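Sample entry follows:

:::
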Amino acid sequence: MRFESAGQFGQAVQDYALKYEKAIKSTKSGEKNIEVRPARNKQASSKWLARHYKETLREKPDWNVLEMQRDIDKKFVISVSKNVCYRARARALKKVYRHGLFSTIVERHIRLKRMFVGFDALKEGFLGGCRHVISLDECFLKSKVGGQLLSAVGRDGYN
């Protein structure tokens, strides 16, 4: 069997290893030869899982990581960690975002995580060095959202 590229061969070997529950390790031996040997099963990487679950995550973008883990265990009879599932989910959603297909899903709830407000004069002053006294102040927000608010205060040297 001939493959167009080493990447295509690697994907075929990885699919075979997971389908037949074989643990293998591939190493490059020469410019055109790749050697495949038995090893500990690390084939279910986040990259491989993202490739296989991209369509599922396109349909259900809020799919839980634990449900994904159970589905992998049922479908491929492999146990993977939550971290691997989380990385695979993030990688697959990144591919979906990149192609603009996510914009068609309107049920998605968007939540603000961080916000930066920079006043240009204040920023220029800090960078220019005319703000000699800088103090930082923080407070905890005690509302439904919670979190911390950090503010930087500077004094103008010309006043």
In short: The mean pLDDT is 74. The two ends are 79 Å apart (CA to CA). The chain is about 40% helix and 20% strand.
